[in-house]
């Protein structure tokens, strides 16, 4: 079964430069088509501004497309927002939390929104955070006292509280130290193996895409320029590694994004 189906998806942003400035339009997605099968992990690779977050936000029902067809978990978008929202988990770098509240309080609040029983939700959240390597004593610390990496782990736990069959992960490991990165990657592999969770993730990290994803899509300037397994992409580009394949197939480099990533 196809968990995500996207056909000729388009999204343009328009903004005015100052009060009387000219209108500027930005074509964030320019006819993107792809699918993700049930139980598959698919990685979208692209430099800053290539449209990755826009695509994830449309699939997560946070943005409306301008054109094209989108189906998530068998429901059309727009149209099936309520059901899609109930059945997805989303993690992004801009995860909104009540920063003065503890991890526990934030997670219990989310559990309540999903209609989950608090004690069971707390047990589950603690189990996930333990697997992600967060010390149990941090569970009671206010979010504002936690590092970005710790907050990212809380965001992952929150996205999984309701056992979603589909996870949409926008740069899930950006900003994490190498050990935390490995813990998150191992956890995602286990989740797919144990629960058959379908995962769509965006990343700047070639090694991460290669480790986690059965198929990888190269996104550049709002277009899906190439897709396939890491080996297929390297073979097609006659490249030694995935970064070289990206440069050859898209005509774009990855330098700005790589320089931005602090590990
Ligand atoms: N709300 C918005 N208003 C105006 N332009 C936007 C908006 N959101 C995104 N854009 C523009 O759309 C394009 C794609 O942005 P998007 O955030 O999807 O890229 P990205 O691949 O996720 O980048 P990054 O790796 O930096 O997160 C960019 O040119 C961006 O400036």
TrEMBL record:
User: Which molecular-function annotation in GO is an example for this chain?
Assistant: ATP hydrolysis activity
What are the residue boundaries of the ABC transporter domain, all occurrences included?
A: 4-246
Q: Which PANTHER family match?
A: ABC TRANSPORTER ATP-BINDING PROTEIN, ABC TRANSPORTER ATP-BINDING PROTEIN NATA
Superkingdom field: Bacteria
Family that this chain belongs to:
Belongs to the ABC transporter superfamily.
* Keywords for the protein's UniProt record, in alphabetical order: ATP-binding, Nucleotide-binding, Transport
What is this protein's record name? ABC transporter related protein
Q: Which organism is it from?
A: Oceanithermus profundus (strain DSM 14977 / NBRC 100410 / VKM B-2274 / 506)
Checking InterPro entries in the record gives: AAA+_ATPase, ABC_transporter-like_ATP-bd, ABC_transporter_ATP-binding, P-loop_NTPase
